[in-house]
Amino acid sequence: MAKWGEGDPRWIVEDRPDATNVNNWHWVEKNATNWSKDRIKELLLNLKVEHEKGTCEIKEITSIEGEASANNRKAKLIFFYEFEIKGVWSGILKDDVKSYKGQFVIPNLSEENDASEIDVNVTADKSCNEAHELKDIFRVEGAKLIRTQLEKYITDLKTEYGQNIILPTKNSDQTKTQTAQSVSNKEIKPKVELNKFVTSETSKPSDVGVRIHTKTLTMTETFQCQSSDLYRALTFKPMVEAYMGSGITFDATKGERFSLAGGNIVGDFVELIPDQKLVMRWRVKTWPPEHYSQVTIELSDKEGTTTLNLKQTGVPEAEVTKTKEGWKENYWNRMRQIFGFGGRIF
């Protein structure tokens, strides 16, 4: 193996001391889900709300549903987290001997919301004045404390999982400033170009009900990743935004609609089998009104790679070539470039 400063300069291993993820190019992900659930529970359980009228306390965290991860893409740290938290609170008014309890739900702890925007929905088990008064204390004052604690979680996540995910490169201390300038000067323009959607020329819409001649489009692509990684890139909104651009409408759930690339692509999900299969109703806005194709994507692992087979029925005959080019440019090529699914880069 070549040493730094010796041998053929085309050897990319000289840019990293351990020759792993050279130049931090590939999408590297750390799963932070279990740690996050434990940390959230630690921060919220037994949290007390002191008020002049009484005291409330979180007695139990009944469920924490969701996931979290830390990602490195080209030496940039990106954190994803999305959780729904449910629990039980209890409270007692001053000069009272009877306590009351209820439920609370935090539906939107995610990187899309600031800590101050986190919702806390509160209910009481009993319908009486005392229970309602305690519920209001917990809903207002308790929500403030909960948001403060969850802000600590966000900070802790970035501290705990921001370590060792961006690995050192040769002369990293000396070139830190140059690297920042390079990222600033060189990556902004490609990013704009990357999010420029490739579509067909605008055509005059046909009347609904006109007979449309269609064909079936098939594609086979190979990616240097596991099927679970590729499925996640197709269904996890923050990753879809990475190659489609922000401002998309996207929830990979059966029956839910999606809108991508500024509304150029719309449709809904018909079937989802994690890491294996994805079926969608799918159309481009320049197609005849209300005409949808059906896209079936199947994934299969083989010797460290994943094969993607796409079958798209009902594509307007005149749009087959442009649609195939669109899949390649807007999906497969961008995914390979952004997530490092294209193999070793020289």
From TrEMBL:
Positions of the Activator of Hsp90 ATPase AHSA1-like N-terminal domain: 29-163
GO CC aspect terms: cytosol
One term of GO molecular function: protein-folding chaperone binding
Listed Pfam families: Aha1_N, AHSA1
GO biological process: protein folding
PANTHER family (alphabetical): HEAT SHOCK PROTEIN 90 HSP90 CO-CHAPERONE AHA-1 (PTHR13009), LD43819P (PTHR13009:SF22)
Protein family per UniProt: Belongs to the AHA1 family.
Protein name per its UniProtKB record: Activator of 90 kDa heat shock protein ATPase homolog 1-like
